[in-house]
Amino acid sequence: MSRRVKGFRFAGVHGGVKAADALDLGLIAADAPASAAGVFTKNRVRAAPVTISERRLRGGRCQAVLVNSGNANACTGRQGQQSALGLSRDAGRALGIKSTLVLPASTGVIGVQLPVARMSTAIPILVDDLSPTGASRFARAIMTTDRGPKVARAELKVGRSVCQVLGIAKGAGMIHPNMATTLAFVTTDAALEPQALGRFLREATEATFNRATVDGDTSTNDSIYALASGAATSRSLARNSAAGRRFAGALMEVLESLAKMIVADGEGAEHLVRIEVR
C-alpha cells in the first residue's frame, strides 16, 4: 500500500466493540470535502448507518467515513439511529468538520446496541491515528469473519498525471447478488463530479458485487462508498471521455478483484467458480 491516494488519510484502532485490543474502529478522512457516492443494500430490512449515509450522500459530498466492525447496528430501532448520529457528531467534532459530512458504516452482529460510550472515547484516538499510509490498519479494523484484509488497487493516466484507485472491503458470509454482507470503500485522487462518480460506481457494482454469491443471503448493511478527492489532477473526468473510460476500467478492475476475494474467502468455501452465461 505504498502508493498513496492523495487527499486521504486512514486510521484503525480498538474502539471497544470487540474484545481485548482487536482493531474494530476505522476512519477515512479527506483533506477537504470530496465528491462521494454510494450503493446500498436492496434488503427490506436496512441498518441505521445505511439509511443515514444514503440520505447524506444526496448532497454528493462527504469528508469522512466512520466504520466499526463487530456490531452491525441493525434492527436496533430509534436508539440505533441516535447512536449512529451521535458517533458521527463526535467524529465531526474531532475532525473539525460538519457532522453531516461524516458517513457512518457498521458490520457485525445484528440486533445489539452499539457500545457508544466506549466508541466515543476512542474517536479522538482514532483521529490521532490518521495517516496517508494508514490503509492497512483501516483494512484490518473493518474485518469480521474475514481471514485477512481485502485490498485492491489500480491506476490510470489523466493527462500527465497518474491517478490512484484504492479499494478496501470486508465480507465472507451472507454473500449473494445485490451485494452481499459486505462493506467496500473506494478512494481515488482523480477528479469527478458526484453525479459521474455515482454512475461509474453503480455500473461497476452491477457487474461485480451484484454478481457474487456464496450462500444465498443478503444483509442489512451492504454498502459500497466511493470518494474522489481530485488531489492528483484538477481535470474533471467526463463520463464519455477517454480518461473517463480509463477510470471506469480501473474502478471495474478494483471492484472485481475485491468481489473475487470475498467469494474466495466465503465461510466454508473451498472453490472459486466463475459462470458465464451466453
Helix share bin: 25-40%
Q: Calculate Rg over CA atoms.
A: 17 Å
β-strand number:
8
Number of helices, counting only DSSP H or I runs of 4 residues or more: 6
Average pLDDT for all residues: 92
Strand content: 25-35%
Overall geometry comes to globular
Cα distance, first to last residue? 37 Å
**SS content category:** alpha+beta
Helix and strand pattern = EEHEHEHHEEEHEH
Note poorly predicted spans.
none
Instruction: Report the major sheet.
Output: 8 strands, mixed
Written overview of the protein:
The chain is α+β, with helices and mostly antiparallel strands. 31% of the residues lie in helices and 26% in strands. The protein has helices at 48-56, 77-95, 116-128, 135-141, 194-207, 242-264; strands spanning 8-13, 25-40, 61-71, 102-109, 150-158, 161-170, 183-188, 223-228. Helix 2 runs parallel beside helix 3 and helix 5 (194-207) packs across helix 6.
Map the helices and strands.
Layout: E1 8-13, E2 25-40, H1 48-56, E3 61-71, H2 77-95, E4 102-109, H3 116-128, H4 135-141, E5 150-158, E6 161-170, E7 183-188, H5 194-207, E8 223-228, H6 242-264
Parallel strand pairs: 3-4, 7-8
Antiparallel strand pairs: 1-2, 2-3, 2-8, 5-6, 6-7
